Amino acid sequence: MSGYDFHPLVKQLLDGDLTLADLPVELRAEGEEALRLLTAVDRRPVELPAVTQRVMQTLASRPAPAAPLPPVPAWKRVMQPREIRLRIRPWILAPALAIAAALMLWIWPATLATPKPPSLVTVRFVLVAPDAREVSLAGTFNQWDAHATPLVRTGSTGVWTATLTLPAGQHQYAFVVDGERWVPDPGAPAVDDGFGRRNSVLTL
Amino acid sequence: MLTLLALPLALLSQQQGIAQRLAGRVSPNVAALVEQLATAGAARGLPSDPLIQKAIEGGAKSIPDDRVAAAVRLVAMQLDIAAAALREGGPVSDTLAITAGAFALTAGLSASDITALARVGASAQALTVGLRVAGTLAALGVPSAEDIGLVSTTLRSGQPAESLLLLPAHVQSAVAKGSTPAAAAAGLSRAAAAQARQGPPPGHGEHPPHPTPPPHPTPPPHP
Fold first, then answer.
1. Could you tell me if B203 lies within 8 Å of chain A, comparing CB atoms?
2. In chain A, alpha helices (H)
3. Do A140 and B74 touch (CB under 8 A)?
4. Of A6, A34, A146, B127, which has the highest C-beta tally within 10 A?
5. Contacts with B56 from chain A: Cβ below 8 Å
6. Do A154 and A112 meet the contact criterion of CB atoms below 8 Å apart?
7. Of A97, A171, A179, A113, which Cα lies nearest the Cα of A140?
């Protein structure tokens, strides 16, 4: 209001303490001017927009993205690789690993105790069976499959033979004559098979 | 957490392996029995393969279920006895040695025979071969005293373990010439003892080549 330095009596007029008629004649024009200016002021309440409203107006004024992203299916969200940050104190792992190792040794001793694959040995099996129509070999090396390893008749003397390459170790076996008769090898040591018959033994 | 996961997973894996091997070969009842015995045996460090093999053998030979079950139970018992006998002779927990011990029992040797061989102090591999050969000699009719004496002496002689594999063929050869199994084994035992006094033969290193397997005997006429 530096541009409007009114007379003190005019200021009293503006404050409502005096009326225009109370002013001296020489101040009435100044008083009228002051009143005119006062009534020209817009006295409607000023409404400032709320913070939320202003933020939303700012966002709305920004350019929209080119195209909205398509919704991601649930299974894709599950399958998508995600970065997981795991912070573990190393000393916590030590007993857990020790227990796991002990458990492995306890559960799978057969697997862990086998240091290397056994070497292979070639063996010839022979059976004299002049009246046989077919002869095969069944044993621990072929899951006792009576059809897996047929013998071949050599000549007309009734000699049946088969040559196999077997892993070093111990094997039990028997000849199967005509698909039904289990016959131990007459030339090899034999043990009770637990079913009232004999199994031949081959130790390589 | 890791432990809690590993235990059931390991048991499940083992049972699935057994079920897979027995599928279509034995009845479900026999398969369940084998799984049960194998799981219980594994907890005691026993191998499961001999049980599976016996069940498969019974199925292949069309043996009734109850007799297959009895045979499988017998094998489980022999594995337990063999493991105990080996422990008594030394800290032997090798599953192959236990399997070989169970075979020796089947062949007619006793738990004390197994313990006697374990007390020789040979490596687990040599002991395993020794037990297999001892069982094979028993199957050939060699009495247990001569049998264990021969195998023990050969193990102590410092010869490679593979040389044990030739003993059954030597006994068979001597028997074919008219000797008794006992006399043949005793003669071989004396020879091994003499060799032990002289030291191992030259050229027998720690890793000798695999010896030629014993020749298959000439087949006699078919009975």
1. no
2. 8-15, 25-40, 51-61, 74-79, 90-107, 109-112
3. no
4. B127
5. 143-144
6. no
7. A171
Cα–Cα dist B164/A166, whole Å: 18
Q: CA torsion B120→B122→B128→B134, rounded to 10°?
A: -40
Q: Which domains does chain A have, with CATH numbers?
A: 8-39 (no CATH), 120-203 (2.60.40.10)
Q: Distance, in angstroms, between B196 CA and closest chain A CA?
A: 24
* Rounded mean pLDDT, A54-68: 72
3-state SS, residue A195: coil
Nearest Cα to A148, choosing from A185, A118, A173, A117?
A173
Which positions 171-190 of A are in contact with B (Cβ < 8 Å)?
172, 182, 186-190
CB contact (8 A) between residue A189 and residue B216? no
**What would the mean pLDDT of B98-116 be, rounded to a whole number?**
97
Other beta carbons less than 10 A from residue A176's beta carbon? 25
The dihedral sign for the CA sequence B190, B193, B197, B203: positive
Q: Answer whether A119 sits within 8 Å of B210, measured CB to CB.
A: yes
Identify the CA nearest to B205 among candidates B167, B166, B158: B158
Contact assignment for A144 to B71 by CB distance below 8 Å: no
What CA–CA distance (Å, rounded) separates B29 from B31? 5
Which single residue is written with the structure tokens 């191992």? B200
CA-CA distance, B88 to B91, in Å (whole number)? Answer: 8
Angle between helix axes B144-156 and B111-118 (nearest 10 degrees) is 10
Number of H helices, E strands in chain B: 10, 0
For residue B45, which residues of chain A lie inside 8 Å, CB to CB? 106, 109
Give per-residue pLDDT as tens, A82-103: 787 877 777 777 888 888 888 7
Chain A residue at shortest CA distance from B15: A107
Q: What is the pLDDT of residue B160?
A: 80
